[in-house]
Specification:
The protein is an all-alpha fold and about 210 residues long. It is about 65% helix and about 0% strand. It has 5 helices and no strands.
Amino acid sequence: MLRMPGKVARTPFAVSPTPDDGVRLSDRRIWDEAARPTGPAPEPGRRYTRHEQASGRHLIDVHDHLRHELAQVRALMEQVIAGATDPATARSEINAMTMRQDAWRLSAYCASYCRVVAAHHTLEDQALFPYLRRADPRLAPVVDRLEQEHQAIHGVLEEIDRALVAHMTATDGQDHLRSAVDLLTDTLLSHLSYEERELVEPLARLGFI
């Protein structure tokens, strides 16, 4: 079927934010999820081009990568705590890494992952969030909250680093390490879902390049 020149196909919004499953591993809470602000509701009947929806899809793809890497961090934590020594069984699952992990190697991997998370948050704080504030001031409370959560997550990442050091020097270090990674899991997964819920549609409506 021929398309009319200049016509761009528009469809209902089809990018689905990742839901929060509500599972929490830690008894600690570093923020009140019920106090999170929400942005403006989508315009009824609004339709979007494929290009408009691409920014939200990209945000979810980046977040999915962080979720995958978080699962690797958790697996490495369990290997360190268990003292596993067989490298072959995990190679296909975690690419170049093996189950023969000691605390020093886990520390290096976690440091790399923490830098990725920090860089992602920095990009949002310095580029994306200021743009959204300008483009739609109604999003300001959401953006403010997301920035606050970024700072809280950075504090949890630093706690993991301290826990890795403690694991190498203290007999009860493994409990602190597991507790810190559980808290990171709760906070990061909750944050990523909240961010997608609030920003995926505005990214399509407002655009961001």
